[in-house]
C-alpha cells in the first residue's frame, strides 16, 4: 500500500523542483531572490547544493537571511543588485490567475519589494494553497503602528473584519492586521484600494504583480502553471 505524502514531503518535492528550475534557467553567477516561510526554507536547504553556481541571493526577511547564511550562501543588499532574474517564494493562497495572498509569516513588504525587482516570480506551494477565490486566508496588512486603529476602521468600511496580530513586529518595525471575512473577486483592484489607506505600508495581495510560474506539489508530482 502506498502511503499518502505528508505536507512537508510535498513542500520538499516542490522545493527540489524549484532548485532544478533555478539551476536550469539562470546564468552562472546570477542572483536569486529568496522568499520566506516553511516552503521557502525547504528551498533554501535545496539551494545550498547549487550555491557555487550563484553570484549570491537577496533575502526577503531576516529569518531567510540567517538561514541562507547558515548554509554559507552569500546574501546581498537589494540596493546593490541590478539584475534579479528569479524570485522563489511560497504563498498562503493562490488562484487560477496566479494572484496570491501572502504574509502569513509577516514578511509581505520585503517579499513584495523583492518580487517587484525580479524578472520571474516562481511560486512554490503544496496543493492545499490552491483556491478558486482568494480570501478564506485572512489578508495580512502591514501598518505603521500609530495608524493601527484608523486603518482597522477603514478596512471595516471595505467589508473586512481586521484583527491585530498582537505581539508581532515586522522586520520593518510595523504591525500586522489580518483581515477576515473577505471574498476577493477583483484582487488587483482590491490590492490597490487597500494600499491607498494612509498608514498602510502594503497588503498581502500579490495581484498587480502576481506569480509568473506556479510549481504546485501534488501526490502525483509537481505540476506547472503559467
Ligand atoms: C511569509 C509568506 C509565506 O510565503 C507564506 O506565509 C507561506 O508560508 P508557508 O510556506 O510556511 O506555508 O508570505 O510572509
From TrEMBL:
One of its GO terms (molecular function) is ribose-5-phosphate isomerase activity. It is an enzyme of class 5 (isomerase). The active site is at 111 (proton acceptor). Its EC number is 5.3.1.6. Keywords: Isomerase. InterPro entries: NagB/RpiA_transferase-like (IPR037171), Ribose5P_isomerase_typA_subgr (IPR020672), Ribose5P_isomerase_type_A (IPR004788). CDD domains: RPI_A. The keyword Zinc does not apply. Substrate binds at residues 36-39, 89-92, 102-105, 129. PANTHER family: RIBOSE-5-PHOSPHATE ISOMERASE. Belongs to the ribose 5-phosphate isomerase family. This is Ribose-5-phosphate isomerase A. It comes from Denitratisoma oestradiolicum. The gene is rpiA.
